[in-house]
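Students often ask why we bother encoding 3D structure as a string. The short answer is that it lets us treat folding as translation between two languages. Here is a chain of 395 residues written in the first language.
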Amino acid sequence: MYDAAPSAAPSSAGAPSASSAPYAVAIIGCGFVADLYMRSLAVYPEITIVGVFDRRPERLAAFAAHWMVPSFDTAEALYAALPRGGLVLNLTNPTSHVEVSRAALDAGHHVYSEKPLAMTMDDAHALAALAKSRGLLLGAAPCNQLGESAQVLAAAVRQGVAGPIRLVYAEMDDGFVRQAPTEKWLGESGAPWPAADEFATGCTLEHAGYHLGWLMTAFGSVTTVIAASARLAAPATDAPDYSTGTLVFDSGVIARLTCSIIAPHDHAITLVGDRGVIRQAKTWANGAPVRFHKRLTIRRKLLEMPVGKRLTFHGETHRMVGRKGAASMNFALGPMDMLEAAATGRPSRMSPELALHVTEVTLALQNAGLTSCAVPIATRIGEIAPMPYAQSLKH
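And here it is in the second language, the structure alphabet:
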């Protein structure tokens, strides 16, 4: 995530820690993204932060002091303190995701990993198999598809607001990031934005999921990816800084997804249907408006209404988190869904099948190069249940 927010002064807003809270969470990794998670977890008093760990003592101390949460000297000690049924948030750098997730599963805990679940499909499948063998839940970020805007969009597709959807354009461009003052991008506890990790991992592997979750929730599984990727400003030692792909869904929908850290900032998604167009301009904002632009003819012209009708649900949706830098997202929607699923026995919307499918499609996009052919996608997902508040749109 690209965030130009300056660090904030230490706050006592801290994480919930009431002993009566029914849900328990442990955090491994206290870097930049962990601050975003803590701000989101703070809106859930029913979650207790049992403790945090980071292999860098100075970062661990600064994070624990800022958020006023217990720190542990080792991950093993933190796993031992986490009650059965608790959830480990793996917020480490991407190259450590597999190792940390494996250790947490081996310790008997459910795991929610920052994206990507793994850097290879072999590692991703191995984690999913381990979780299944232990009877544990495994999920991976992002979870913005559980947010209000994404749920509105999916409901609009289900209810045929724009008629059958024929084509989708999704943009995940973040500007010419290598020219940005990234050294000034600090989290609330003072953690620097991890530029080297972000560039080495790649904008596609880091960010394609923010659109893929929306698309998979609305249209199901991807069967084929036809993509291209390139290093436009990136050195050969870093991942591609541009990718574009045509995604073929088993529902028949075709989507074009573009990721870059080159083109001007654009996080829009546009669905083109027989009756008009559905648009949302800010994928990183849970509450951003989703609008339907009806298609009509005026004399000899065919056009979509320039001012669209905003689509909404009845009543309350979910707990919102204020804007911090580049995003206005509740990062705890996914972990909370997994905690509730573990407690009630219902399936989690943040399933290992979804994590595997997002990972496979993302790797096909990032690894395409400039001479790739159509890539068949082997993994599949089942239908993802709407959030409780998202059963139908307001008329």
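Translate back mentally: The first strand starts at residue 23 and ends at 28. Keep this in mind for the problem set.
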